[in-house]
Amino acid sequence: MFSQNARYSLLLITLTVFLFAVLQPSLAVSPVITLNPAHGEPGTVVKVTGSNFDSRDMICTISSSPTGLIEDSNCNAFDGKVIGQFTVASGASGAYTVSVMGSTNDRAGTVFSVPTTETTTAPQVSNTQVLIIVLVLLVVVILIFRWMRQRAGPEPVRQA
Prior knowledge:
Blueprint: H1 4-23, E1 32-36, E2 45-51, E3 60-65, E4 70-78, E5 81-88, E6 94-102, E7 107-114, H2 127-152
Antiparallel strand pairs: 1-2, 2-5, 3-6, 4-5, 6-7
């Protein structure tokens, strides 16, 4: 009924459809999230948006690793998207991985940075050290004046 070429074409189409059906779940796009801003100081409100989540997700949670970055978080999931926000906790410092997990356990993460606040203190100089520095500078100035006088030679004699 079918020619040899038609049979091969039908077999090839059937095999292609079967492989696509089997491999299609592995071709799915992974969830991703975006933080706005991607870095900030304690007290900063960070907006979280995401896509490619499971469309069955109804709720989501926001977390960080290490812990200690997030306070006052909220997150909603709908139609494969997530939207939420959190406040950067006081005392947070350094780099954190922020993760959003949907109710079907799909997850996405990205990095958030909190600038480290380094306190620099000026070196302490005692009064004795200041006095020694002033005396050394005074001696150096005196030696320079003596050297300049010797180089200039004796002063001419003035007649009255």
